[in-house]
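Reproducibility note. Readers wishing to regenerate the assembly model reported in the main text can use the exact inputs given here. Chain order matters: entities are listed in the order in which they were concatenated for prediction.
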Amino acid sequence: MSIAVYIFVMAGVTYLIRMIPFAFFRKKIKSKFFRSFLYYIPYAVLSAMTIPAIFYSTGSVITSVAGTVVAVVLAYLDLPLIAVALAASGTAFLAGLFC
Amino acid sequence: MKSRFLRGMSHGIPIALGYLSVSFGFGIAAAKCGLSVFAASIISATNLTSAGQAAGIDIIAAGGALIEMVLVQLTINIRYSLMAISLSQKLDKCFTTPHRFAASYGITDEIFAVCSAQKEPLTPAYMYGMILIAFTGWVSGTAMGVSAGQLLPASVSSAMGIVLYGMFLAIIIPPAKKQKNVLFAVLLAAGVSILMRYVFTMISGGFAVIISAVAASALAAVIFPVKDDEEAHE
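Running the prediction on these inputs yields the following structure tokens for the assembly.
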């Protein structure tokens, strides 16, 4: 089968998954439960994606944990996103030099 | 209009930097699957998602059935539907249907995260700015990964693997510090996710995220229903 067919199917499915709810979901949701549910979804999704995957993100648990600790502290201090992200990576890099 | 676009672009810079490293890795993997720079870049440009693409090139390399491709993409990417519904609740009035058709293309984990952290309603220009810069990082990283192979020393590229996760922590920790209901949802989702990873290992990564997030959010919604004034602070 041609690669173009695979790519077309892959892209089509991925687009429809995003587009259909975004384009056709127009009403303000009235249900208190569902509104609360949607309020928590972003935080819960990001938390589930991050933990425990972050501990394996650099290929070494030691450097990942070092980067995670720095990220948690800086995020707790309300530093900007880019500062937290790059400091985590810089820490993992430095930790990698020593182990 | 223009300033919103630029604002979106500036908010997209950390996303683009993270994408550059992740898509570089995808590019290397795509080369191993025998894909050309062109094919891999087209995949990145049309899909704009990491996990789905990584699974997709494996299916291409194995010559899998198209129905398998459909099911795998559905499973891994269905979380975007939840994100799209969530974002649909905070769109500005100027977000007409054609704009929704266009902007929905760019709903990724990271763009969703940054957009949902905004206090004001979302405008198309803001989302386009963010999508454009994220797209640039994602596609150029892919092309570099395939063609240059080892552009970065391994010590640098592996350390860059943590960039996106660091950004996620920077998004969830400040609100979790201030609101105990958010803290509850965050800790519960992390707990369920850990359980999936180490105990229910037969559940794939994409499903694990969905189950963890839905379970944690549903329980948080029952125990801590959100008041309207609280939502305004979102």
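We highlight two features of this model. Chain A has four helices and no strands. Chain A touches chain B through 75 residues (CB under 8 Å).
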